[in-house]
Structure formats: C-alpha cells, structure tokens
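Title: Prediction job returns without error message
Component: structure pipeline
Severity: low
Priority: P3
Assignee: unassigned

Description:
Job completed but the reporter wants confirmation the result is attached to the right record. Sequence as submitted:
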Amino acid sequence: MGRRFFIPSMPATPHHYTSDSTTAQARGTAEPEGFIPPTPGNRAIMTRCENRQTHEITVLRANCPDCPNHPPSWSSRPPARPPALPVGLAGWLFDPGSLTQRLRRSCLDRFRVHVLHQGWARPGRDETSALGLRLDAWTWTREVQLLCGERPWVFARTLIPAATLRGRGRRLTRLGSRPLGQVLFADPKVRRGPVEIARIVAGQHLHQRAFAGFAEPPDAIWGRRSVFWIDGRCPLLVCEIFLPALPVSPALVDRTGFPS
C-alpha cells in the first residue's frame, strides 16, 4: 500500500493529509525510516496506533511530475498554472501538421536526421500505458536528433510495438536517416491521436535521453507526444522534445491560434 512510519500522537481520529500538512511534523521523528516527500500531490492516511502515543502514516500516492523519479505529466491542454509555456513555443507544440515540414521551412541551412539509437528496448511505464501494452512489453525504439546544419533542434523518440511491425509498420524499422514524419504524413491510412504536452525536468528518463552528451543541459524542457494509428488498429508512440536551439518567433500567430 505504501511506506509506513510513525510520528508523535496528534489527532484522535483518522485523517487524510497532503505532504504540505504533515512533512514538517514527520521530519523530526520519522526521518530514519522515511517521511512524506515535500512535493505537491502526495497523499497519506494517518491512523492512531493502539497502546501507543503515536500515529501511523501510510503514503498512498505520490504524484510529482517535476520530480526526477516520476514520469512527466502529459496533458492535451496548455498548463493552467505556472510554469507557463515559454512565449512562442505553443505553436510548435500544438501544430497538427508535420513537424518535419515545419522544421524544413524554418531551417535556412541543411535539414537532416541524425540517428542516435534504434533497436528493441523496454518502454517506460507511462509509455506502455499510452500504447496499451503490458509492463513487460518490448518495443522497437528509435531515437534521433532533427538538426538544422549542426544545431539539434528536436529530439524525437519513437516506440513501435511488435504487433505493429507485423503489418505495414515493418517498413518503419528501415527508415535510416529519413524522417519518420515524412512517411507517416504521406500515408492516408495513418491517423494521429491527440497531441499531449509535458514539461520534462532534469533527472527524468526522457530528459536524460534527450540531452545525452550535452555539456550544459537545461533544468527543464517542453515536449509533446502522440499515438499514431496505422490502418486504425496498429499504434506507435512518437515523442518530440524541443531543444533550446530551436528558434521561435513570438510575433507570429499560426493556424492553431497559439503564438508561434
């Protein structure tokens, strides 16, 4: 159910608490066995112990999208609370068209794809959930950088379940340096699901993958993801992380209605 520890006797009846209301009280006596992390969204139940002047706390859930050991919090809407989207980035995140085409239009230098990794790998828990897979599933995983000249603008991570590769999706393992978007958006039998965005912080797995080899990666970055469906039944997950070198123009408004 969760981690358990004890603090000195307080209320006489069971209570539910968030981390903000209990952390300060728990730190002094419970830290050797663990305490409720001081992060928004934690949940715990406190019950009085028989024959003891203590209360037992059990952490039920910890929901901290900005914590390194938690996956990003994906949403199909812009954030309603801080941290807000950087000015000019929303148009890129919510653009319903081909990112490859938009990058090519924006790049005055040579646009190219640099393949970082491809092969079978275990997806993260939030990725298996998005694809409707078992937690022990493997996916064909492709990670690339989309560059303008020598500047990486986007890190892209694609996960393709084995079932998708049994049909027409098999060709996606032989892309080489061709952009995935060029193939997907040219296929009339490919449908794109809703776009989800997230703020990805240092220490999270996706942040580590996107900035592997970078000398000074930022503390946080924004990205988006979508599930694409081939022939209506074969999914693949495409995640795109917008890197600091990507230029944005706050003076323009694109067809999505967001600043671009």
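Comment from assignee: result matches the submitted record. Residues 19-30 form the longest helix (12 residues).
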